[in-house]
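Progress against Task 2.4 (sequence-to-structure conversion) is shown through the following example record, which the project officer requested during the mid-term review.
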Amino acid sequence: MVTAFRERLLEKIYPYLIVDAIYTKVREAGAVRSKGLLVALGVNGDGYGEILGFRAADTEFEGSWGDFFSSLKALVRAIGKHFQGAAWQRCQTHFSRNLLDVCPKKH
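C-alpha cells generated for the chain above:
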C-alpha cells in the first residue's frame, strides 16, 4: 500500500506546496537515533491539503531533499532549482518563534 501511494500519479494542480521535516527517534541496527521524515503537503485549489509524499532521511542536505523531490515525479535536484519563481517561506514554526522573539510582549 505504501509503494502504491508513493508511486501514484500526481495529476491535480497544487498552487501551494509546503515541505518540511520532522525528527523522531528510530531504532536501527539495535541503536536508537534521530531520523528525519521529509514531508510534502500540497494545497489544492479548494484550499484542502493533501500529503503528496514522504521519505525518511538522515539529514536535510540538498541530496536528501533532491532525492525526495525526484520521488515526487521527476524533480532532479533541490528545491531552488525546481521551483524557480516560487515564493520561499521559512519553516513556519521557526518563523513564528523568531517573530515572537522580536515583538514586544504586550503585542
